[in-house]
Amino acid sequence: MYSYEERIKAVKLYIKYDQCISDTIRELGYPSKNALKQWYEEYVQIGEIREKKDSYQKYSKDQIKIAVDYYLEHGRSLSRTIRAVGYPTRETLTKWIDELAPNERKVRIKRSGMLQLSQKQKNEVVLEFCVCEDTAEAVAKKYKVSRGSLYKLKKQLLGDESIITMKKLNQTKTSDDRNELLSEVEALKKELYKKQMEIDILNKAAEIIKKDKGINLQRMTNCEKTELIDALRIKYPLYELLKMTGIPKSSYFYQKKIQEQPEKYSELRKTVKSVFDSNRKCYGYRRVYSAIKNKGQVVSEKVIRRIMKEEQIIVSVKKKRKYNSYKGEITPAVENVIARDFHAESPNKKWLTDLTEFHIPAGKVYLSPIIDCFDGMVVSWTIGTSPNAELVNTMLTDAIAVLSEKERPVVHTDRGCHYRWNGWISAMENAQLIRSMSKKGCSPDNSACEGFFGRLKNEMFYGQSWKGVTIESFMYELDEYLKWYNNSRIKMSLDGMSPILYRRSLGLAV
Fold it and tell me: N or C end of the chain, less CB within 10 A?
């Protein structure tokens, strides 16, 4: 069906080219000769070409539905439908069917399709028809030939007929030609079998190593290749799979023997899982290794890492959100005495402090700790629901209480308002402690304390559901974590010991 614009364009070009049909059709690519003549005669008679009305305007929706339903229910024949209901044209009915019942219209395959195939293509068609699992109709549709032509070609190439008619040469094939053709078919079958085996191997390899793209059999371990071969031995012979995967027969049976032996690290796997779970699921493989080593069990760190990878024991990490306590320059700032040197030769030489916020469904909770730069121990802490002066001053008072008479540590803070109020300044001066402050908005100046907050939230706060937890319950959990942090949590920088154990190992009073 051509639009009005296409028809009028063709007629005008036909007139422009002195009514030369071939030149007009060659340039436009349409229509047929008879159609062009018909359009031209209509244009000459009435001076224009009538616009065709939409079929939907000519027929009601009920009439259209009746025609389409009859077509679907009575053999899907256009001719039968038009004879029965008395309308419309084949083109219009085809359009109705495609719009109201997509993919339901029967498409007839041209019988001339087989004539367009070369002899090599015909061989491939017959080979696929013989060895593949698709139906004859599917193969015929793929190559755009009829089912009858497909069976006829198969009979010609592989049947009992001794004489095969060749369209161009019109001569009889000899028995040698027939044997050569059969040999070619057999070679194609073997090639198809080999390709199918390669596809099956790659698909199964993707399942085993959990990788969809970039599968390389040469990079697979012998253990993975053995698992792959075992999965496909039902379908393919062993010697073919060994050849395709590139693993020697001796290596294959060696891996089979190893797999049949009891799991060497079955108990260790349970121990690793237990250590991980009992330490708030925040230990990586290094600290899990140290914890197991401290129990007196000798094992390689690489084994721990492999077990955690195989068991998918992973520490969840999320980005922290920092509480900001800056309220402006309330009192003069002091010098940055620490100067980003967070190393201390002994306890109570350098202290760090800051405030952090925990936001749970029940409300907000604030933590104010003092961290000792010597070993990262939390010297004192206070937990509350308001970031006020009482919270930080109480923490400072508790920390001062653990100092000996001669200890005067440097206390480093940011420029938050809590550390610039008179109460904080007076307490520092009375205890003869040294004040130190970060630059304005410069978190790296107090990065060691920020790092403590990051570890705390990753290990205790993030990745947990606090829905239904009260403020009091959360404050209790936080307090328990800080006790565990000092007494039990392993630090690799302390030779795999907790801060309390490390101090005891040095003979320091705790």
Answer: N
Q: What are residue 235's phi and psi, to 5 degrees?
A: -100, -30
pLDDT digits (tens, 9 = 90+) for 59-113: 888 888 888 888 888 888 888 888 888 888 888 888 888 888 877 776 654 444 5
User: For 356, phi and psi rounded to 5 degrees?
Assistant: -135, 155
Domain boundaries, the chain: 4-100, 111-173, 192-260, 266-310, 350-505
pLDDT at 317: 63
* DSSP code, position 444: G
Q: Is the pLDDT reported for residue 306 higher than 80?
A: yes
First to last CA, the chain: 96
Sequential DSSP letters for 21-86: HHHHHHHH----HHHHHHHHHHHHHHSS-PPPPPHHHHS-HHHHHHHHHHHHHTTT-HHHHHHHH-
Longest dimension (CA), the chain: 121
Residue 356 near residue 366, CB atoms below 8 Å: yes
Strand partners, 358: 365
Please state the length of the chain. Answer: 510
How far CA 129 is from CA of 133, 146, 155, 231, in Å, comes to 8, 13, 12, 28
Q: Torsions phi, psi of 383, nearest 5?
A: -125, 135
Per-residue confidence at 213, pLDDT binned at 50, 70, 90? low
DSSP three-state, residue 497: strand
Let me know: does 326 contact 416? Beta carbons within 8 Å.
Answer: yes
- The position carrying tokens 């920020």 is 450
CA distances (Å), origin 282, targets 320, 459, 481, 490: 15, 5, 12, 11
Distance of CA 336 to the CA centre of its chain: 47
The CA distances from residue 308 to 259, 304, 419, 464, 472, in Å, are 20, 6, 44, 21, 35
The DSSP output letter for 418 is G
Considering only CA atoms, which of 8, 93, 92, 83 is closest in space to residue 53?
92
> What is the distance between the alpha carbons of residues 258 and 264, in angstroms, rounded to a whole number?
10
pLDDT above 90 for 480 = yes
Neighbours of 326 (CB within 10 A): 13
Is residue 363 pLDDT above 90, yes or no?
yes
**Amino acid found at 146:** S
Distance CA 308, CA 30 (A): 70
CATH architecture of 350-505: 2-Layer Sandwich (3.30)
Residue that has been written with the tokens 């436009």 in this structure: 28
pTM reported for the whole predicted model: 0.46
Which amino acid, residue 414?
Answer: D
Give, in order, the Cα–Cα distances in Å from 360 to each of 90, 278, 462, 467, 468. Answer: 70, 23, 11, 7, 9
Angle between helices 119-131 and 147-158 (to 10 degrees): 100
DSSP conformation class of 459:
I
